[in-house]
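FW: tagging you since you asked about this chain on Friday. Here's the raw sequence from the shared folder, copied in full. Didn't touch anything.
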Amino acid sequence: MLASNAPVYTAKTLAQALQLRADHPEAVLLAGGTDVMVFLEADRLEAPAFLNLWGCEGLHGISEDGRKIGALCTWAELKEHPALPMALRACARTVGAAQIQARGTVGGNIANASPAGDSLPLWLAADARFTLQSLRGRREVAASDFFLGYRKTALAADEILVDIQLPVQKGELYYKKVGTRLAQAISKVVLGAYVHQEGGVVRELRVALGAVAPVPLRCRALEEALVGGPVRPELAALVHQDIRPIDDVRSSAHYRAKVAENILRTWLGSLRGC
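HL: got it, structure written out here
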Protein backbone atom coordinates (compact mmCIF):
# COMPACT_ATOMS: atom_id res chain seq x y z
CA MET A 1 0.00 0.00 0.00
CA LEU A 2 1.25 3.48 -0.85
CA ALA A 3 2.50 4.93 2.42
CA SER A 4 1.75 8.55 1.59
CA ASN A 5 -1.20 10.90 1.75
CA ALA A 6 0.39 13.41 -0.61
CA PRO A 7 -1.75 14.60 -3.56
CA VAL A 8 -1.19 12.90 -6.93
CA TYR A 9 -1.52 14.94 -10.12
CA THR A 10 -1.99 12.83 -13.24
CA ALA A 11 -1.06 13.93 -16.76
CA LYS A 12 -2.60 12.31 -19.82
CA THR A 13 -0.74 14.41 -22.39
CA LEU A 14 2.70 15.98 -22.55
CA ALA A 15 1.10 19.45 -22.55
CA GLN A 16 -0.70 18.62 -19.29
CA ALA A 17 2.49 17.20 -17.81
CA LEU A 18 4.48 20.33 -18.59
CA GLN A 19 1.80 22.60 -17.12
CA LEU A 20 1.53 20.48 -13.97
CA ARG A 21 5.30 20.41 -13.67
CA ALA A 22 5.40 24.21 -13.87
CA ASP A 23 2.60 24.53 -11.31
CA HIS A 24 4.03 21.93 -8.93
CA PRO A 25 7.85 21.88 -9.22
CA GLU A 26 8.00 20.33 -5.74
CA ALA A 27 6.17 17.20 -6.92
CA VAL A 28 8.08 13.93 -7.22
CA LEU A 29 7.84 12.55 -10.74
CA LEU A 30 6.20 9.13 -10.85
CA ALA A 31 6.79 6.98 -13.93
CA GLY A 32 6.87 3.21 -13.37
CA GLY A 33 7.20 3.78 -9.63
CA THR A 34 9.46 0.77 -9.07
CA ASP A 35 11.91 2.83 -7.01
CA VAL A 36 9.51 5.40 -5.58
CA MET A 37 7.27 2.76 -4.01
CA VAL A 38 10.23 1.05 -2.37
CA PHE A 39 11.50 4.35 -0.95
CA LEU A 40 8.05 5.19 0.40
CA GLU A 41 7.58 1.86 2.10
CA ALA A 42 11.08 2.10 3.57
CA ASP A 43 10.28 5.58 4.89
CA ARG A 44 13.14 7.05 2.85
CA LEU A 45 11.12 9.51 0.80
CA GLU A 46 9.12 12.53 1.87
CA ALA A 47 7.08 13.89 -1.02
CA PRO A 48 4.75 16.88 -0.78
CA ALA A 49 3.07 15.75 -4.01
CA PHE A 50 3.44 13.38 -6.96
CA LEU A 51 3.18 13.98 -10.69
CA ASN A 52 2.04 10.74 -12.31
CA LEU A 53 3.35 10.41 -15.89
CA TRP A 54 2.61 6.72 -16.47
CA GLY A 55 -0.26 7.19 -18.93
CA CYS A 56 1.12 10.33 -20.54
CA GLU A 57 0.86 10.31 -24.34
CA GLY A 58 3.99 11.33 -26.21
CA LEU A 59 6.48 9.81 -23.80
CA HIS A 60 6.16 6.16 -24.83
CA GLY A 61 7.63 4.09 -27.63
CA ILE A 62 10.84 3.53 -29.57
CA SER A 63 11.44 4.80 -33.10
CA GLU A 64 11.66 2.23 -35.87
CA ASP A 65 15.39 2.81 -36.31
CA GLY A 66 16.00 2.61 -32.56
CA ARG A 67 17.59 6.04 -32.35
CA LYS A 68 14.85 7.67 -30.25
CA ILE A 69 13.58 6.08 -27.03
CA GLY A 70 10.65 7.57 -25.14
CA ALA A 71 11.29 8.21 -21.46
CA LEU A 72 8.36 5.96 -20.50
CA CYS A 73 9.64 3.05 -22.55
CA THR A 74 9.76 -0.01 -20.30
CA TRP A 75 12.57 -2.51 -20.00
CA ALA A 76 10.27 -5.14 -21.47
CA GLU A 77 9.91 -3.00 -24.60
CA LEU A 78 13.60 -2.23 -24.73
CA LYS A 79 14.76 -5.83 -24.58
CA GLU A 80 12.56 -6.85 -27.52
CA HIS A 81 13.24 -4.01 -29.99
CA PRO A 82 15.27 -5.41 -32.92
CA ALA A 83 16.83 -2.09 -33.97
CA LEU A 84 18.44 -1.35 -30.61
CA PRO A 85 22.06 -2.32 -29.91
CA MET A 86 22.45 -5.78 -28.42
CA ALA A 87 24.15 -4.28 -25.37
CA LEU A 88 21.06 -2.21 -24.51
CA ARG A 89 18.81 -5.22 -24.87
CA ALA A 90 21.16 -7.27 -22.72
CA CYS A 91 21.04 -4.56 -20.07
CA ALA A 92 17.24 -4.55 -20.10
CA ARG A 93 17.21 -8.30 -19.40
CA THR A 94 19.18 -7.81 -16.17
CA VAL A 95 16.87 -5.18 -14.65
CA GLY A 96 14.80 -6.85 -11.94
CA ALA A 97 12.33 -9.60 -12.71
CA ALA A 98 9.59 -9.70 -15.37
CA GLN A 99 7.28 -7.58 -13.21
CA ILE A 100 9.89 -4.82 -12.86
CA GLN A 101 10.73 -4.97 -16.55
CA ALA A 102 7.05 -4.54 -17.42
CA ARG A 103 6.64 -1.49 -15.20
CA GLY A 104 10.06 0.13 -14.76
CA THR A 105 10.94 2.84 -17.26
CA VAL A 106 14.15 3.91 -18.95
CA GLY A 107 13.53 7.55 -18.09
CA GLY A 108 12.90 6.71 -14.45
CA ASN A 109 16.20 4.86 -14.23
CA ILE A 110 18.02 7.86 -15.71
CA ALA A 111 16.28 10.56 -13.66
CA ASN A 112 16.64 8.54 -10.46
CA ALA A 113 20.40 8.93 -11.02
CA SER A 114 21.50 6.13 -8.72
CA PRO A 115 25.25 5.57 -9.23
CA ALA A 116 24.40 1.85 -9.45
CA GLY A 117 21.66 2.34 -12.07
CA ASP A 118 22.03 -0.55 -14.50
CA SER A 119 21.63 1.43 -17.72
CA LEU A 120 23.50 4.63 -16.90
CA PRO A 121 27.03 3.67 -18.05
CA LEU A 122 25.57 2.51 -21.36
CA TRP A 123 24.07 5.94 -22.10
CA LEU A 124 27.48 7.46 -21.41
CA ALA A 125 29.22 4.91 -23.62
CA ALA A 126 26.67 5.39 -26.40
CA ASP A 127 27.17 9.19 -26.30
CA ALA A 128 23.41 9.52 -25.81
CA ARG A 129 21.62 12.84 -25.49
CA PHE A 130 18.64 13.43 -23.21
CA THR A 131 15.81 15.71 -24.31
CA LEU A 132 14.51 17.84 -21.45
CA GLN A 133 11.34 19.88 -21.82
CA SER A 134 9.40 22.51 -19.90
CA LEU A 135 6.97 25.28 -20.79
CA ARG A 136 10.07 27.36 -21.51
CA GLY A 137 11.09 25.05 -24.35
CA ARG A 138 13.22 22.00 -25.13
CA ARG A 139 16.93 21.39 -24.74
CA GLU A 140 19.28 18.47 -25.22
CA VAL A 141 21.86 17.50 -22.63
CA ALA A 142 24.65 15.01 -23.28
CA ALA A 143 24.56 12.01 -20.96
CA SER A 144 28.08 12.93 -19.86
CA ASP A 145 26.78 16.31 -18.61
CA PHE A 146 23.56 15.07 -17.02
CA PHE A 147 24.72 13.39 -13.80
CA LEU A 148 25.99 16.12 -11.48
CA GLY A 149 26.28 14.36 -8.12
CA TYR A 150 24.78 11.62 -5.99
CA ARG A 151 21.18 11.40 -7.26
CA LYS A 152 21.57 14.92 -8.66
CA THR A 153 20.95 15.72 -12.33
CA ALA A 154 20.82 18.61 -14.77
CA LEU A 155 16.99 18.52 -14.76
CA ALA A 156 15.56 21.89 -13.73
CA ALA A 157 12.65 21.97 -11.29
CA ASP A 158 10.14 22.62 -14.09
CA GLU A 159 11.57 20.11 -16.60
CA ILE A 160 10.68 16.57 -17.63
CA LEU A 161 12.90 14.06 -19.38
CA VAL A 162 10.97 13.23 -22.55
CA ASP A 163 13.28 11.02 -24.64
CA ILE A 164 16.75 9.62 -25.21
CA GLN A 165 18.54 10.14 -28.54
CA LEU A 166 21.17 7.68 -29.78
CA PRO A 167 23.65 8.72 -32.48
CA VAL A 168 24.60 6.55 -35.44
CA GLN A 169 27.57 4.42 -34.41
CA LYS A 170 30.34 2.82 -36.47
CA GLY A 171 31.57 0.65 -33.62
CA GLU A 172 30.05 -1.65 -31.02
CA LEU A 173 28.58 -1.20 -27.56
CA TYR A 174 29.42 -3.60 -24.75
CA TYR A 175 27.69 -4.20 -21.41
CA LYS A 176 28.70 -6.09 -18.31
CA LYS A 177 26.94 -6.14 -14.94
CA VAL A 178 28.43 -7.70 -11.81
CA GLY A 179 26.01 -8.36 -8.96
CA THR A 180 25.03 -11.00 -6.47
CA ARG A 181 22.91 -12.46 -9.26
CA LEU A 182 22.67 -11.67 -12.97
CA ALA A 183 19.25 -10.07 -12.45
CA GLN A 184 17.06 -9.06 -9.49
CA ALA A 185 20.15 -7.59 -7.81
CA ILE A 186 21.64 -4.11 -7.56
CA SER A 187 24.89 -3.69 -9.43
CA LYS A 188 28.16 -3.99 -7.56
CA VAL A 189 29.98 -2.83 -10.69
CA VAL A 190 28.48 -2.13 -14.10
CA LEU A 191 30.37 -1.42 -17.32
CA GLY A 192 29.21 0.25 -20.50
CA ALA A 193 31.76 0.64 -23.29
CA TYR A 194 31.98 1.59 -26.95
CA VAL A 195 34.87 1.03 -29.34
CA HIS A 196 35.52 1.67 -33.02
CA GLN A 197 38.69 0.20 -34.50
CA GLU A 198 40.27 0.47 -37.94
CA GLY A 199 43.26 -1.61 -38.94
CA GLY A 200 43.98 -2.61 -35.36
CA VAL A 201 43.97 1.01 -34.18
CA VAL A 202 41.42 2.34 -31.69
CA ARG A 203 39.78 5.30 -33.41
CA GLU A 204 37.02 5.99 -30.89
CA LEU A 205 36.54 4.75 -27.35
CA ARG A 206 34.15 5.52 -24.53
CA VAL A 207 34.36 3.54 -21.29
CA ALA A 208 31.92 4.19 -18.45
CA LEU A 209 31.43 2.55 -15.08
CA GLY A 210 28.67 2.60 -12.48
CA ALA A 211 28.60 1.83 -8.74
CA VAL A 212 32.23 2.93 -8.35
CA ALA A 213 31.71 6.66 -7.64
CA PRO A 214 28.91 9.05 -6.60
CA VAL A 215 27.91 9.27 -10.27
CA PRO A 216 28.26 7.00 -13.30
CA LEU A 217 31.43 8.22 -14.97
CA ARG A 218 33.68 8.02 -18.01
CA CYS A 219 37.13 6.51 -17.55
CA ARG A 220 39.00 9.35 -19.23
CA ALA A 221 42.54 8.24 -18.41
CA LEU A 222 41.99 4.85 -20.04
CA GLU A 223 40.28 6.39 -23.06
CA GLU A 224 43.08 8.87 -23.67
CA ALA A 225 45.75 6.18 -23.35
CA LEU A 226 44.14 3.83 -25.87
CA VAL A 227 42.76 6.10 -28.60
CA GLY A 228 45.15 6.31 -31.54
CA GLY A 229 46.96 3.06 -30.76
CA PRO A 230 46.38 -0.68 -30.52
CA VAL A 231 44.26 -2.34 -27.85
CA ARG A 232 46.43 -2.93 -24.78
CA PRO A 233 44.59 -4.87 -22.04
CA GLU A 234 47.29 -4.10 -19.47
CA LEU A 235 46.17 -0.45 -19.54
CA ALA A 236 42.99 -1.49 -17.71
CA ALA A 237 44.84 -0.56 -14.51
CA LEU A 238 44.42 3.11 -15.49
CA VAL A 239 40.79 2.84 -14.41
CA HIS A 240 41.91 3.50 -10.82
CA GLN A 241 42.73 7.08 -11.76
CA ASP A 242 39.02 7.83 -12.29
CA ILE A 243 36.93 5.63 -10.01
CA ARG A 244 36.23 6.26 -6.33
CA PRO A 245 34.50 3.14 -4.95
CA ILE A 246 33.20 2.91 -1.40
CA ASP A 247 32.40 0.21 1.14
CA ASP A 248 28.69 -0.46 1.62
CA VAL A 249 26.30 -3.29 2.44
CA ARG A 250 26.64 -4.78 -1.04
CA SER A 251 30.39 -4.81 -1.45
CA SER A 252 33.75 -3.35 -0.46
CA ALA A 253 35.71 -0.61 -2.17
CA HIS A 254 38.60 -3.05 -2.70
CA TYR A 255 36.33 -5.59 -4.39
CA ARG A 256 34.76 -2.98 -6.67
CA ALA A 257 38.15 -1.60 -7.70
CA LYS A 258 39.51 -5.07 -8.46
CA VAL A 259 36.41 -6.15 -10.40
CA ALA A 260 36.35 -2.91 -12.41
CA GLU A 261 39.92 -3.52 -13.56
CA ASN A 262 39.30 -7.22 -14.24
CA ILE A 263 36.20 -6.77 -16.39
CA LEU A 264 37.91 -4.02 -18.37
CA ARG A 265 40.99 -6.18 -18.91
CA THR A 266 38.80 -9.08 -20.08
CA TRP A 267 36.83 -6.88 -22.47
CA LEU A 268 39.95 -5.25 -23.92
CA GLY A 269 41.52 -8.68 -24.35
CA SER A 270 38.49 -9.80 -26.35
CA LEU A 271 39.03 -6.90 -28.78
CA ARG A 272 42.48 -7.97 -29.94
CA GLY A 273 42.39 -9.03 -33.55
CA CYS A 274 38.94 -7.50 -34.13
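FW: Residues 253-271 form the longest helix (19 residues).
HL: agreed, and The chain is about 30% helix and 25% strand.
FW: great, closing this out.
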